[in-house]
Fold this protein.
Amino acid sequence: MFFVSSVFGQSVSITANPSSSINAVVGQSNHHALESIYLDSEIGASNFIGAGNGITRIEFSNNATNTSASLPVTITGYNIYMKNVAATTTTFITGTYSLSGYTLVYSGNFIVNASGSWNGIDLTTPFERTAGSNLQVLLIRNSGTIQSGLSFDCSLGNSVSSTAPSCRRYNSINPPVESSSSLSASTFRAAIN
């Protein structure tokens, strides 16, 4: 993922403990959800704080080694949500997700143009972080079509521990439903820039 502030041009790459996964970012079934936590210390305590300094862009790194799809690929029905969470919120357990507290920052298509590089989305709603908080990101793909052949770089765990279950995910033929669909805890959160 890629974060950019329009005022100061801030950018942060979170790629701790590199790996890759076919189940990150878009998943391999008809529908997908991925909820991840990024620590304040990984983002930078003063980055994207306050009015005019919000996150305006996010990028995911397509993994060239494990991607077999012919690019470009247009992913439809793609939604990105963000929210600030307490600094003590660092991991997930398997369970349902809730949209409570989230801000929908993008809804539309995600186009994967390039293999082995960052592929970005300009957010329609900039997101301002709260000082001292961690960032929680929820990606939902409700296209209804099977996605295959795409792999994305991951950040295993977080910068503190590669074994931290800092994300949870859902891949199914059925659309994810808030407070109903169970997401499985995982260490494979999307690497972001």
User: Anything to note?
Assistant: The longest strand covers residues 73-85. The helical segments are 40-43.
